[in-house]
Design brief:
heterodimer; A: 1293 residues; alpha+beta; seven-stranded parallel beta sheet; seven-stranded mixed beta sheet; 49 strands; B: 139 residues; alpha/beta; five-stranded parallel beta sheet; two-stranded antiparallel sheet; 5 helices; 38% helix
């Protein structure tokens, strides 16, 4: 390893204390504690994206460990590790105390801790700085640099502010490498730009290319083309220093070779140069590479009390005298130019403070510490340094001015307040003024000669009269310049030469045109270019001056403010000489010139062109001189005034008297006034300058505060970014949870500690009267319809105790039952922060359970009522469990567990062989089976038991049979009885040859028995459709069947009708069917119709009918003969009419008497209705009397009597007039005699003369034949007839 | 003679189907007495066909039983042609009424008035009744 002389690990403060004196001025340790590279990554706002990009394509096997340091909100858990782990193949873990540093692992800093590595393990320390001032990246990079030296890399990614820049610088200083995300790519380019501004960045790359590049670097880290050979090495280094000196002006020859070698080596590796020759070629040609190398070489090695003996010298020579002369109200102003990371400024502050203590004086001390490197200023402002620097402090200052922290120490506030840091470019920015001392050590050596010489007037300007300038050990003031007088040459302490003629200087120093251009081209902090300025001469040297003095026309060089800068030649004719150091042109110019010179100078300056004036007459004590004046503007903003004498001097002695004395006095007065005004103005200007100075300081403070705010902002941005990601993940998790709850259809109510509803799932809203809008309200406001216990109290208990509560609730008024679980709601820290109610609707289960118990109850009741016994047989053990009823059936004394054989000993199957066969077959198939068994118990009558059994597998997995036994003895006997009755009935039916039809009303299918089948000539007993049934029934009788069936079905009427069956080749059969509807055993309506063969009776009836028909025909023939007989005489005609009517009446009555309905004979009422009815039209008729039936033997006679009475009524009586009336009433008398009252009402009745015609004779003889009594009387109203006749057979006989 | 029957059948042509000649003559007499202009008498089904082929009758008086068969089918045909029909029979009772629903039944023996009334009645029914066929029930 090149230049590695020692290994400094993480030494404790105590060790450093001991070793500090010896170790001083040694190089930082270059060894590494862990033998693999560690890549420190600093990121802030936008960092997540950058880190993601950086690691997206990274595969394992990098051989490196990665440590990510971000600005994280200390009050929040960081999700960074989780967020990243899904994005890369390598392991990602959030660092915990004592975690080992592992290869191929991205270690992520946890929030709120400062990170360091010790013994290969991470250590987390609380932040010592207040929020906003923390620089965790810098802090870790510093640790990493010291720990790993060359095996460290710093990567700066997106972020605002400048954290990481200083740390990166330290890593570089310790030999590590640095990489920065391209600012164009970074979401926030603040941190990348800040890092780039140091010009120490090895690689500027898109995030995705950083890891491969670093890996490539470390893979080839320790093989460089730099020659190992000492001589060649020295030679190469000399060449390089030569190139740098000639191009950048910086001379590194005096630098420690080891440092230069190490840094050069780094450069070679970064560039991946193949050989040193190749690099040298590049260095010679490429200006940027020259600058880059110079910058690498220049990495500041500032320290506290650098060159300690010089400090003591300064104290003695400068500080002590300075302070002695100051009072408490006075101000001491010190300017530390090029302060770098602040050590020098703090050293001076400590020294001054210490001296103040000694002198017991306390003037206001202000130390302005400036540097052009903003990053360094940032570090300096923190005033916090690694303990490795602790030894640089003199022992007496250590405890007084530092506050120790574990790995750092901090400068106390008192000292910090003395120092004002600001970014300041010595070359461009206006200098501080009225400064007592300027410390500008080791700065000049980097600057070109021109810049150097420009700096001294500037410093001369800045210093108060008598102020001091402190330079580096290798620096000195420009030779030949008398601005500063060496006070202590060895310590490089110089005093301001107050009487020296300070040359004019313009800002920026150096060539103004080049400077301006440079500034425009590089608006950033691109200052290095100025080092490129070629040194050139300025002003006159002595020999030139002599020539100008003697041979050139006299001339002046005037600055813009009117001061005379230089002069040449004899100017006494044009200028006055005054005592002191007055150099103002307007005060020195003689009359004549004074008047014209102002406009001339202004014209030349403003136009930038040469101006001239001819024949100006200048008055002097020597006379009036006529001269041409040329004003020539110079590049440095000065104007040269050249006087060309035209004529000889004209002495003015003659005119001396003539001149009015008053004019001179006036001018003198005016000039005096002007002088006084100028002095006042000068004072004001100085005052303003002071105020300006203070404003600048305030501004610096503001900038510091701004910096702090920016840090805080950065932390917030990071936190915000994390939160955004967290919200995304939460949204996802929430959606997952929602989906889970929805898909599980879980009814859940989440409550907070105060029983306020936090969340209600959809399922819960369906069950409970809750809405989404109820979230946030207290559960106590709702009537939750569950159970009869105090829900709120139970929730309270759960929240208090943290133990879950489970309950099955009673059915509510909607018959809902729930399985309720109240579980405590735990927060991540284990505290109970509420409760979760989950409800499962078990209403159906509860209902089922309830129904089951009811069913069981019913079953038991039914079994009890039916005397049903049950048992359970274990087929494997052959034992069975029987209940009391079963015991009784089996004739056993006790119930419970019995042997199977014992139970069956009294039971014998009716058909044992059949039973065994059925049982075994059923058991084999696992089906149920039944059998009837006979139980014979001694002393008890034989009983019949019907057994139903079913095999099943018990809950314990054993084969079992469950059996039910019913005592069916009663049924058995009933069946026997029924069978007997049925046989008897069948016998009766057979005997009566009665067939039975049974018709299903719905299907119209008729079941015929054997007798019916025979009757209807059907082939066999069985079922017949309507068509088949009537096949042999006479077609015209078929409608009768339909009619009567309809009557039975629709009105439930019983019916009876006769129909005929015509079997070809046989006699006509006459059948009588009598039917009625009933509900069959199968619940279907049926019509049952017993049918008998009435052929015999029918034939007789037909015979009678035929006889009757013939008799009637006979009547009709007789009537026809009568009506068609020739009737010559009207009398004969009337007689024939009467006769005809009598015959017809007899015929009608005969017909009536023949009807079936007249089994008892013809009713009297029917007879009257028939005979009288045919003669009546509009007349009122009434018949009133009990049922009297007319005997057959008196029918003809009685009919003729009634016919005669009716004929009379029609001719003369009640039926003769339209409004007449006839009423007949009768009552029964004894011995079959009926008394009949016949009354005819005739309006305006004229009783007829009594005449004894054939009619009267017929009535009289008829009454006599019937041994009756007839009485007729006439009145005005009509006719009344009383008639007593023996119409019926005597009753009781 | 009942004068109420006069002119009851004025100008009508009536067919009397009766195998018993004395009854047939009496019926013819009764109808003529009631004003019928033409009264034809048929004693067999074949004579009926001859008569129906030759004349369009205003009413038919029909005995149910003839020597060469029963007259139900003839009655049905006549009713289908809206010919007023009177059944004049010793069998004429309700048992047969359903087979010839629009016929008027006049039982033998009957008076001339009965018969004339029956013819007038039958003509009324034929004039108002829709065609009605004896149909078998859907059973």
């Amino acid at each position: 390893m090149l230049g590695a002389k020692q290994v400094v690990g993480t030494m404790g403060k105590a060790q450093l204390d001991k070793s500090m004196d010896v170790q001083e001025a040694e190089e930082p340790g270059l060894g590494s504690q862990l033998d693999f590279p560690i890549v420190g990554i600093g990121a802030s706002a936008g960092g997540l994206e950058a880190v993601t990009t950086m690691f997206q394509g990274v595969e394992t096997g990098t051989g490196m460990a990665f440590v990510l340091v971000m600005h994280l909100d200390p009050d929040h858990e960081s999700m960074m590790a989780e967020l990243l782990s899904s994005k890369t193949r390598i392991r990602v873990r959030q660092i915990a105390e004592n975690d080992h540093v592992e290869v191929d692992c991205l270690h992520v800093i946890p929030p709120g801790a400062s990170l360091r590595i010790q013994d290969g393990m991470f250590r987390l320390d609380p932040f010592s700085e207040p929020r906003g001032l923390r620089r965790p990246i810098d802090s870790f990079f510093t640790e990493l640099a010291k720990l790993q030296g060359e095996r460290a890399a710093a990567v700066v990614l997106s972020g605002t502010g400048g954290d990481g820049t200083a740390g990166m610088r330290i890593i570089k200083e310790f030999g590590g490498i640095s990489a920065v995300q391209s600012p164009e790519e970074a979401r926030y380019d603040g941190m990348p730009f800040s890092a780039l501004a140091t010009k120490m960045v090895d690689f500027t790359l898109p995030a995705s290319e950083i890891v491969p590049r670093i890996r490539a670097f470390f893979d080839g880290a320790f093989e460089t083309p730099f020659p190992d050979d000492d001589d060649a090495g020295v030679k190469a280094m000399d060449t390089i220093c030569g190139i740098l000196k000639s191009t950048t002006g910086a001379d590194f020859t005096g630098y420690k070779r080891s440092t230069l070698l190490r840094r050069l080596n780094r450069r070679l590796q970064v560039l991946e140069a193949a050989s040193i020759e190749e690099y040298l070629t590049l260095l010679r040609e490429d200006g940027s590479e020259q600058r880059a190398l110079a910058r690498d070489f220049l990495i500041n090695v500032t320290s506290f009390f650098r060159d300690r003996e010089i400090f003591e010298q300064v104290r003695q020579t400068v500080i002590l005298p300075l302070l002695r002369n100051k009072d408490a109200s006075d101000e001491v102003r010190i300017w530390v130019a090029g302060c770098s990371s602040g050590q020098e400024a703090y050293s001076i502050a400590m020294m001054i403070d210490h001296t103040c203590e000694e002198l017991k004086k306390r003037p206001l001390v202000q130390i302005f510490a400036t540097d052009m490197d903003e990053a360094m200023i940032d570090i300096a402002r923190q005033a916090s340094y690694p303990v490795s620097m602790f030894h640089e402090l003199p022992a007496k200052y250590r405890d007084a001015y530092t506050v120790g922290q574990d790995e750092k120490f901090e400068i106390i506030a008192k000292i910090r307040e003395m120092v004002r840091f600001s970014v300041h470019d010595l070359i461009q920015d206006p200098p501080f003024s009225k400064v007592d001392m300027i410390s500008c050590r080791n700065l000049m050596i980097y600057l070109g000669e021109e810049l150097q010489s420009g700096l001294f007037p500037l410093m001369h300007f800045s210093l108060r009269p008598g102020g001091h300038l402190l330079l580096g050990t290798s620096e000195s003031v420009t030779r030949g310049d008398n601005l500063f007088i060496p006070q202590d040459q060895r310590a490089r302490i110089f005093r301001r030469n107050d009487s020296a003629k300070r040359p004019h200087f313009n800002l920026p120093l150096g060539n103004p045109l080049t400077a301006k251009k440079a500034k425009q081209a590089y608006p950033g902090s691109q200052r290095m270019s100025q080092e490129m300025d070629f040194p050139r001469h300025q002003g006159f040297d002595a020999s030139n001056a002599a020539i100008y003095e003697n041979y050139a026309p006299p001339f002046l060089r005037v600055a813009q403010d009117g001061r005379i800068m230089d002069s040449s030649g004899d100017l006494s004719l044009f200028m006055m000489s005054r005592p002191g150091e007055e150099r103002r042109l307007d005060l020195l110019a003689r009359d004549g010139l004074n008047e014209v010179i102002g406009p001339l100078l202004a014209g030349a300056t403003n136009s930038g062109e040469r101006r001239a004036m001819k024949g100006v007459e200048v008055s002097s004590p020597f006379g009036v001189q006529k001269t041409d004046i040329i004003a020539h503007p110079m590049k440095d903003q000065t104007v040269a005034l050249v006087f060309i004498v035209r004529e000889r001097l004209q002495p003015v002695i003659d005119e001396f008297e003539l001149r009015p004395p008053s004019r001179d006095e006036q001018v003198a007065d005016l000039q005096e006034n002007l002088q006084a005004a100028r002095l006042t103005l000068k004072g004001k200007v100085e005052e303003i300058e002071t105020a300006n100075e203070e404003l600048k300081s305030s501004n610096e403070e503001m900038m510091s505060m701004n910096e702090e705010l920016q840090s805080a902002n950065e932390e917030l941005t990071t936190a915000n970014e994390e939160l955004k990601n967290k919200i995304d993940e939460l949204t996802l998790a929430n959606a997952d949870l929602d989906n889970l709850l929805q898909s599980a259809d879980l009814a859940m109510i989440v409550l907070d500690r105060n029983k306020r509803i936090r969340h209600v799932t959809d399922a819960a809203r369906k069950l409970m009267p809750l809405m989404r809008s109820d979230e946030g309200r207290s559960l106590a406001e709702f009537n939750i319809p569950i159970g009869n216990f105090n829900l709120l109290d139970e929730i309270g208990n759960v929240i208090e105790s943290g133990e879950a509560f489970v309950e099955t609730t009673e059915p509510n008024d909607k018959d809902q039952s729930f399985y309720l679980r109240i579980t405590p709601y735990f927060f991540a820290d284990g505290s109970v922060e509420g409760a979760t109610l989950s409800l499962i609707d078990i209403s159906k289960e509860v209902e089922l359970r309830h129904d089951l118990s009811v069913e069981t109850e019913k079953l038991q009741l039914a079994m009890k009522a039916a005397g049903m016994g049950s048992w359970d047989t274990d087929l494997e053990t052959g034992r069975m469990r029987i209940d009391a009823a079963a015991a009784k059936i089996g004739g056993l004394d006790k119930h419970g567990l019995v042997e199977r054989d014992a139970f069956f000993k009294n039971i014998e199957a009716v058909d044992k062989r059949e039973f065994v066969k059925t049982r075994d077959a059923a058991l084999k198939k696992g089906e149920s089976y039944s059998y009837t068994a006979k139980v014979k118990n001694s002393g008890v009558e034989t009983r019949w038991v019907q057994v139903h059994a079913k095999p099943y597998t018990g809950a314990d997995g054993r084969k079992k049979v469950i059996g039910l036994g019913i005592d069916v003895s009663e049924l058995y006997r009933l069946q026997e009885g029924l069978r007997e009755e049925s046989s008897k009935l069948r016998l009766a039916l057979n005997t009566a040859r009665m067939g039975v039809a049974e018709m299903d009303v719905e299907t119209r299918v008729t079941t015929a028995d054997k007798a019916l089948a025979h009757q209807l000539n059907l082939p066999s007993i069985g079922e017949y459709g309507p068509e088949e049934l009537v096949e042999f029934i006479v077609a015209e009788d078929v409608p009768l069947i339909d009619e009567n069936l309809a009557k039975a079905v629709e009105y439930g009427q019983e019916y009876e009708f006769d129909f005929r069956v015509d079997v070809p080749g046989e006699d006509m059969r006459y059948l009588r069917s009598r039917g009625f509807i009933f509900t069959g055993a199968d619940g279907r309506p049926k019509v049952v119709a017993p049918t008998v063969d009435v052929t015999a009776g029918e034939q007789q009836k037909m015979l009678v009918g035929e006889m009757s028909h013939r008799i009637k025909n006979l009547f009709a023939v007789i009537a026809g003969l009568v009506s068609t007989a020739p009737k010559d005489h009207p009398e004969t005609k009337a007689m024939a009419q009467d006769l005809l009517e009598r015959i017809v009446s007899l015929g009608k009555v005969y017909d009536l008497a023949r009807k079936d309905t007249t089994a008892f004979g013809l009713s009297l009422r029917d007879m009257f209705t028939s005979v009288i009815g045919s003669h009546a039209s509009t007349q009122a008729l009434s018949f009133d009397g009990p049922d009297v039936f007319i005997s057959q033997n008196v029918l003809n006679t009685f009919t003729l009597i009634v016919h005669e009475l009716t004929t009379n009524a029609a001719k003369y009586g009640g039926l003769s007039a339209a409004d007449g009336a006839l009423s007949v009433s009768w009552k029964k008398q004894k011995d079959g005699v009926t008394q009949i009252i016949w009354e005819e009402m005739v309006p305006d009745f004229d009783p007829p003369e009594s005449h004894e015609g054939f009619g009267s004779l017929l009535i009289a003889s008829g009454v006599r034949q019937l041994r009756g009594h007839f009485d007729r009387s006439f009145s005005k109203k009509g006719v009344r007839i009383e008639l007593s006749l023996a119409l019926s057979q005597a009753e009781g006989r | 003679m009942n004068t109420a029957a006069d002119n009851g059948l004025n100008g009508l042509a009536i067919l009397v189907v009766e195998d018993e000649i004395f009854i047939g003559l009496a019926v013819e007499q009764a109808l003529r007495d009631a004003g019928a202009e033409t009264v034809d008498l048929a004693t067999t089904l074949s004579e009926v066909e001859d008569c129906l082929a030759g004349t369009e009758y205003d009413a038919v008086v029909l005995d149910l039983r003839l020597p060469d068969g029963e007259t139900f089918d003839l009655g049905t045909q006549l009713l289908d042609k809206h010919v007023p029909l009177v059944i004049h029979s010793g069998h004429a009772d309700l048992d047969h009424s359903h087979r010839l629903p629009n016929a008027v039944f006049c039982a033998k023996p009957s008076t001339p008035q009965d018969l004339v009334h029956a013819v007038i009645e039958a003509r009324k029914i034929a004039a108002v009744s829709p065609i009605f066929h004896s149909k078998r029930a859907p059973f």
